[in-house]
Amino acid sequence: MISAEEKSLAKACLEIAGAAGAQKARVSLSKSSMNLVSTLNAEVDRVTSCQDSSISIAIFADGRYGSYSTNKLGLEDLKSFIIKAVEMTKLLAPDECRNLPDPSRLVKDAVDGNELGLYDPAIVEISPQQRIAFALDNAVYGRQDGCRLISEEGEYSDSDYHNYVVDSNGLEAIHRETSFEYGTEVTVEDDKGNKFSGGWWEASPLLKDFKPGLVGPAAVKEAVAQIGPKPCRSGKYTMVIDSEVSTKVVNPILGALSAYNVQQKNSFLSEALGKTVFPEGLTMMDLPRSAGETGSKYFDSEGVATSDHCIIEKGKVLEYFVNTYMSAKTGLSPTCEDAIRPKILPWAPDGVKLTTREEIMDFCGDGILVTDFEGGNCNTATGDFSYAIQGYRFKKGRIVCPVREMLVTGNIISLWQGFIAAGDDARVCRAKLIPTLAFRGVDFSG
Amino acid sequence: MKMNNDASHFGVGKDLLDSLVATALSTGGNWCDLFFEDTTYTSLLLRDGQVSSGGSHIDYGCGIRVLCGEKTGYAYAESTDRDSLFRAARAASAIADGVGNCFSSVGRCATPPSSGSLPLQPGAAMTTETHTPHLAAIDWRETSAAGFVPKLQQLEALIRKKDSRVHKVIASLAWQVSEIAIYNSLGELVQDTRPLGSVNVTVIFLQGEQTEMTSASRSFAMGAEMIGDSLLEELADLSVKGIDERFAARRPKGGKMPVVMGAGASGILLHEAMGHAFEADFNRKGQSIFSGKIGKKVARKGINIIDDGTIEHNRGFCRYDDEGVPGQKTYMVQDGILTSYLHDRISAGFFGVAPTGNGRRESFRYNPIPRMRCTYMESGSDGSVQDLISSVSKGIYVDQFSNGQVKIGEGDFTFYVKSGWLIEKGRLTMPVKDINIVGNGPRALADIVAVAGDLKIDDGTWTCGKEQSVPVSCGIPSVLVKELTVGGE
């Protein structure tokens, strides 16, 4: 937890900045610890122990702005650092749009950091032996029948993170959370010596919800399923995107809704606010205030209070993400700086209920199931994208063979015009709750 | 710079260094190294015509690594006071202390080997000499940020002068200097001063209703003397280069076809598609598609692929790597034969070879692993890029890639084409954009059928992310690959 001395240190930084000539400042003190055990082929390979702490300070001096950080936290070191930071800030050009958020927008209910229930005190009870047991007990190397598993790298980690933020407008807020994670990468060989890799991971802020036992079998299943890929002809296909990777076609939307990109004329949604540019089936919420859920936060990095609300409702864009600076630049009303915990709601035509990937494939009939994107890009200004994919050809709702060395190309707006369905299977260990998605008429090259 | 034989910059004397090593090895580890780092990072950002944003950051600490055979114990301290350092040393020693007796299978740690028979001895001995920071004629730390503000404004003015369609210019200058000290259980000490400066610029163009964006960057391991008129002029030229073609560019029809890679930035192909698979950790673990292929033919005769840490001022320059091994030039492929992986001390010990100076890390927070430096292919003898293009009936010429990615086991790679042309009957006929190229590393390497004599190292701000981020660079002469899959309509 953040100690009284650490709170005093953060507040002292505000005073030092003020004495050095800053009219306003925001100080963020973060500290974290992590313990990690890596395994290679069911033997311990690496043990890591980390403890970090740092102070970041945003300086507003004479209409100018600068951002600084240091991990030298002795008071004398901080004094010297902050005085230099104020001096440097005063060398920059003035920018009247830089300011702290209005006090009325600041979070008020993040008092001790426990409000969201994301901190599990059980973390301090975990012994080194238990960490090693977590890592070794969940390894599958040597325990897996039916495939030639040539390598398995597993990694267990537990961590805690504490953040204390104060500013000269009266902000004082705390966020704290724990995380328990286990992930595995495996490599299998076929009869001809060709290698295929697969991976899986699980994470939870609370130990009781942590399910590392699912990881190894899922990784092996993914690797084995890729054995025997077959060429697939170029053409237009229905594309079903697994919930593990479906953020790939949502992140460009979130980026284009950033007021920064809109202001820089670098957004394919620059004229979209208040307009219906997506199909009726797309509704995206931001749900940052869900207790006990990964990604939840009561405030953003400016200390602005988050809220549960709709970003896109039945295809209509309701929000750009506008921080204090961008609000002053653009005249748009300020919001949180980003989507904190976006969630796409399930949808299918005619009120049909589709939850899982399999149900969506069955509904679509034929197409290509995408289980991984491997590089590529989306042009923020135009929405044009091109990604390499890994996945499977499916017919009549059933997977028939793996495909590889294929590319999918298109435009984000056009892609969503072919939206078929969204499932209800978003991975709860992610901050972005994007389920399995399906689109018709997508260009594949192979 | 003060000459010394201890880590005095960090307030740590020789006795304390030895005590920390002794503590770290007290549980049976057979190798220990200490990595001290003091990095200052400063940046300036020009946006909307003003340098109105900037900042500086300090990162200070010491990473302590204990090896027990190929197993690693790692911990770090963000302070170099005795208590913090000894706490980290004890935490790192846990790899060998038989916590719960779980490491009994390792075996080889039961009796620490005597010095002289350590399997992890570097190929070239470390030295206790200290090294003056001759990479930087003008130490960034002795400059004022105020002096660079006009330089960024000059860069914007140059860019706007070159093209009336320029709508926005976003330019940044960032510099960092790291003081490094590395000490190991052989009693060897290396000290290094590492400057790195980078200028990045993104330009948004408007033509009617159409928006296009370009980006350019230059980065060097050198001091503030790098910021001169010639660099700004070069960046301005790069920023507007090919903008007419970008406005006119279209997606081609996709499919399998020959691809001519232009000299320079196309070297990212080597980095992603081959270089990563040559990193010895992947091969030690049997994961790489090149595992067990040392001495085998992987490319046509005459092809040489190199990873080089000795090019002074290059972004991938390493006087010493982060294990204290001297920087080297490593031939991975020589005359078409796979001759070496890229090693850190662990993999070198495993394979029984000398480390190649590729043990690198992002900061003291990370343990070193095999990483590339400047990866390139030597020039060939197949004429010019024009000769290569002329030989293609229908294909693609690419001169700028980004967002490369590779699957180490399968060897499958992907690259996003930032700019290129359609080749028809030996001529460049239509600019193309927003497409990907996919292929398979070993197959693409074997399918290089022509190499021009125009090797060019690209000095862009390349950063490689493999668990950790490290600065790298790349280069290649123009090459013709017989067949790759090109995405398109």
Helicity level of chain B = 10-25%
Q: How many helices of chain B?
A: 10
Average pLDDT taken over every residue of chain A? 95
Q: What's the overall geometry of chain B?
A: globular
Series of H and E elements of chain A: HEEEHHEEEHEHHEEEHEHEEEHEE
The secondary-structure class of chain A comes to alpha+beta
Radius of gyration of chain B: 24 Å
Give the amount of beta strand of chain A, in percent.
35-45%
Which strand order do you get reading across the main beta sheet of chain A? 3-2-1-4-5-6
Which features does this protein show?
heterodimer, A: 446 residues, alpha+beta, PmbA/TldD fold, six-stranded antiparallel beta sheet, five-stranded mixed beta barrel, 19% helix, 36% strand, globular, B: 489 residues, Double Stranded RNA Binding Domain, six-stranded mixed beta sheet, 10 helices, 21 strands
How does this structure look, described?
Chain A has 446 residues and is of the alpha+beta class. In chain A, 19% of the residues lie in helices and 36% in strands. Chain A contains nine helices and 16 strands. Chain A is globular and about 70 Å long. In chain B, helix 1 packs parallel to helix 2 and helix 3 (149-162) crosses helix 4. Chain B has a six-stranded antiparallel sheet with strand order 3-2-1-4-5-6. A six-stranded mixed sheet of chain B has the order 10-9-8-13-20-19, covered by helices on one side. The model of chain B is unreliable at 99-125 (pLDDT under 50). The longest helix of chain B has 14 residues, at 149-162. Chain B is α+β, with helices and mostly antiparallel strands. Classes of the chains: A alpha+beta (446), B alpha+beta (489). The interface between A and B is large, with 73 and 82 residues.
